């Protein structure tokens, strides 16, 4: 990827004002610098939950496995089967908390110019002379309950299916996955909205329940 190019892998419920969205965004870098993987979560149209990690490999050299695990209790982002981020369902625990539990999703892929912010906070701009910009994908796997955006009956059925409640192993963070997640937090985090005091003078309450 070139400087300030953003390659997005987005699981998006809709384009409306109340949409849900889970993002993987790969930020272009300067030669020799680690690539940043930018993630965000939108619920009911509200995001502001950005996190970035320094990838421990060059994602342009080979294919890697990126996936979301999403059920009624937990949303986990993975890279090569290593959890890099989790987002718990804290409804009933955190005041006014909203969890994505009624959001049929589609998968979108895109590439766009992030010169305003992507590389070193926007100091480094996209080099159009490096075009064409090419992204390759393979081995897509989707395993979930099918529902259309406006089909309330289908959404209700999915909420009560084994996809929403696949069992304790997948609805909780076990010891091994929690350890892996903490290793990512301790060694690879570049930015975490939970730690951004100029932006959030008081840490969002949800943060204390999520390891990363």
From TrEMBL:
Function in brief: Catalyzes xyloglucan endohydrolysis (XEH) and/or endotransglycosylation (XET). Cleaves and religates xyloglucan polymers, an essential constituent of the primary cell wall, and thereby participates in cell wall construction of growing tissues.
Similarity comment text for this entry: Belongs to the glycosyl hydrolase 16 family.
A GO MF label: xyloglucan:xyloglucosyl transferase activity
Name of the molecule in the record: Xyloglucan endotransglucosylase/hydrolase
Pfam entry (one): Glyco_hydro_16
EC number: 2.4.1.207
The entry's keywords: Apoplast, Cell wall, Cell wall biogenesis/degradation, Glycosidase, Hydrolase, Secreted, Transferase
Listed SUPFAM superfamilies: Concanavalin A-like lectins/glucanases
Processing after translation: Contains at least one intrachain disulfide bond essential for its enzymatic activity.
Gene3D superfamilies (alphabetical): 2.60.120.200
Domain GH16: residue ranges: 1-137
Lineage, opening ranks: Eukaryota, Viridiplantae, Streptophyta, Embryophyta, Bryophyta
Tagged with keyword Transferase: yes
Biological-process GO terms, alphabetical: cell wall organization; glucan metabolic process
Chief localization: secreted
Organism of this sequence: Ceratodon purpureus (Fire moss)
